[in-house]
């Protein structure tokens, strides 16, 4: 079992760390194990890669567009595709995955 089910990656870090913690609070309130990667790295791909090497199944990115739209961009472990969705929709999807104890792409 991964120590964290979701890693929130603010990019660029300085501008969106508050929104990242907002998203993390919503997830924690629903019982999701979540971490915020506050490291001041210049490359978002490095943070995503390091999250995936730690076997965190779901890194999500929050940036300018996501902050303005109150959405998150998710990247599934092992997939190069990203998908943007509203926070409430993301929470519903991650809770369904947790209750099912699997990922939809793993079935």
Can you describe what's shown?
With 107 residues, the chain is α/β, with parallel strands linked by helices. Helix content is 44%, strand content 21%. The protein is built from 4 helices and 5 strands, in the order E-H-E-H-E-H-E-E-H. The protein has helices at residues 13-29, 44-53, 64-69, 87-100, and strands spanning 6-10, 34-36, 58-62, 71-75, 82-86. The protein has a 5-stranded mixed sheet with strand order 2-1-3-4-5. A hairpin with a 6-residue loop joins strand 4 (71-75) and strand 5. The longest helix is centred in the first third of the chain and has 17 residues, at 13-29. The two termini are 18 Å apart. The model has no long low-confidence stretch (mean pLDDT 83).
| Residues in helices, as a percent range | 40-55%
- Radius of gyration using CA atoms only: 13 Å
> Could you spell the SSE succession in H and E letters?
EHEHEHEEH
Structural class: alpha/beta
- What value does the average pLDDT take? 83
Q: Within the largest sheet, what's the order of strands?
A: 2-1-3-4-5
* Number of separate strands: 5
Number of helices: 4
Low-pLDDT runs = none
Strand content is 15-25%
Shape: globular
The oligomeric status of these chains comes to single chain
Distance linking N and C termini: 18 Å
For the biggest sheet, the summary is:
5 strands, mixed
């Amino acid at each position: 079992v991964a120590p964290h089910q979701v890693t929130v990656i603010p990019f660029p870090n300085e501008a969106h760390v508050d929104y990242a913690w907002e998203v993390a609070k919503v997830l924690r309130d629903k019982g999701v194990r979540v971490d915020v990667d506050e490291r001041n790295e210049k490359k978002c791909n490095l943070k995503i890669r390091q999250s995936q090497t730690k076997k965190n199944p779901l890194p999500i990115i929050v940036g300018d567009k996501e902050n303005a739209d109150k959405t998150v961009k998710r990247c599934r472990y092992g997939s190069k595709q990203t998908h943007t969705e509203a926070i409430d929709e993301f929470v519903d999807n991650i809770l369904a995955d947790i209750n099912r104890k699997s990922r939809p792409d793993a079935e």
